[in-house]
Amino acid sequence: MIAMGLTSAPATAQAVPPQSQGAPEQRGAVTNLPLPRYVSLKGNEGNARRGPSLSHRIDWVFRHAGMPLRVVAEFGHWRRVEDKDGAGGWVHYALLSGVRTALVTQDMLELRTRPNPDADIVARAEMGAILRLNECQPDWCRVSGGGQRGWVPKTTIWGVDAAEIRD
């Protein structure tokens, strides 16, 4: 077993509620992509502003490359984003990436060889580590980071909705 430090960010566990069953899917007025949706911070720093322009005050600064963020609104070249604690603001789209990542919300999270709680442990990730999000099944996601890859329960990461399936 290998312990992974990986990229660390402040962490507190909080699940993202799935969208209501049967409710029509919202789409962004600019991109026509689903809202809410997850993205990640492209660089090491991104300013979150009070409104969608450079003239608005900076309320928050994201400082972790790859940090998963949830897009909840769009206006021109700006996206309203939130982190797992609900902090955020308007960020220019150029600072965001479509690469999916997830934030570990459980300390010493065990990455397993298969999506099964009895499968062998291949690595452990610290709470706050940022992992690359790969395939997701109903209850498990395959993640990678620090040269390791494995399966984790969806309930132990933030950056994917409970009902989301990824191939």
UniProtKB/TrEMBL annotation:
Please name the InterPro entries in this protein's record. DUF1058 (IPR010466)
Q: Which residues does the annotated region (Disordered) include?
A: 1-29
Tell me where on the tree of life, at the top rank, the source sits. Bacteria
Q: What is this protein called?
A: Aspartyl-trna synthetase
